[in-house]
């Protein structure tokens, strides 16, 4: 897990440089996939759960010194990584997402960052039992994988 250990090293050195009086905000990009296990994206999901836990722990350690560590857990955003080309109400452009997420700084230390994502996070993270959210994610990813394999076979 090189990205996880890099995150730990970067932030440890950043926060230990903070002297007693200075303030700062660190935004760590986790993912909604880190809120519960997401089968067929298991390693990604586990790494994002690490980012979320790490951020929350670090925030508790350093808030008294004026350092805020925010954990950001987006659902889909229309980027190169997600392969979503056209932004929609639930899959915003990166600009729209970032604008909205930045408005939560100072208000929330753990956020889905965008109102429709917050609603999705509430349903899948709090309303549904974790086993159901995981089952739902499994079915969605099975469908995505089947579509991908069909496309690969066709080309
Ligand atoms: N998009 C989503 O739906 C979504 C949902 C939840 C969480 N996230 C998280 O959001 C974060 C950003 O993702 P994104 O969707 O914005 O992805 P993206 O559009 O693919 O952008 C990733 C960025 O990281 C840079 N990058 C990748 N590997 C790198 C490396 N080894 N060293 C330095 N820079 C590197 C890329 O540079 P180049 O442009 O030069 O390749 C690019 O600027 C990720 O942590 C992702 O897990 C995304």
Automatic annotation (TrEMBL):
Pathway: Lipid metabolism; fatty acid biosynthesis; Steroid biosynthesis; estrogen biosynthesis. GO terms for biological process: steroid biosynthetic process. It holds the Pfam family adh_short. It catalyses: a very-long-chain (3R)-3-hydroxyacyl-CoA + NADP(+) = a very-long-chain 3-oxoacyl-CoA + NADPH + H(+); 17beta-estradiol + NADP(+) = estrone + NADPH + H(+); 17beta-estradiol + NAD(+) = estrone + NADH + H(+). It is found in: Endoplasmic reticulum membrane. Its EC number is 1.1.1.330, 1.1.1.62. Catalyzes the second of the four reactions of the long-chain fatty acids elongation cycle. This endoplasmic reticulum-bound enzymatic process, allows the addition of two carbons to the chain of long- and very long-chain fatty acids/VLCFAs per cycle. This enzyme has a 3-ketoacyl-CoA reductase activity, reducing 3-ketoacyl-CoA to 3-hydroxyacyl-CoA, within each cycle of fatty acid elongation. Thereby, it may participate in the production of VLCFAs of different chain lengths that are involved in multiple biological processes as precursors of membrane lipids and lipid mediators. Belongs to the short-chain dehydrogenases/reductases (SDR) family. 17-beta-HSD 3 subfamily. This is 3-ketoacyl-CoA reductase. It comes from Engystomops pustulosus.
């Amino acid at each position: 897990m090189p990205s996880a250990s890099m995150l730990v090293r970067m932030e440890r050195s950043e926060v230990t440089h903070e002297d007693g009086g200075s303030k700062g905000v660190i935004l760590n990009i986790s993912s909604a996939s880190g809120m519960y296990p997401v089968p067929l994206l298991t390693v990604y999901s586990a790494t994002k759960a690490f980012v979320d836990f790490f951020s929350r722990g670090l925030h508790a350690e350093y808030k008294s010194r004026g350092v805020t560590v925010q954990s950001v857990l987006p659902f889909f955003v229309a980027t190169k990584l997600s392969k979503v080309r056209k932004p929609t109400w639930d899959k915003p452009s990166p600009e729209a997402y970032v604008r909205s997420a930045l408005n939560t700084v100072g208000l929330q230390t753990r956020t889905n960052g965008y109102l429709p994502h917050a609603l999705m996070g509430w349903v899948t993270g709090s309303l549904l039992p974790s086993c159901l959210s995981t089952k739902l994610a499994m079915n969605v990813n099975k469908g995505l994988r089947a579509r991908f394999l069909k496309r690969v076979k066709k080309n």
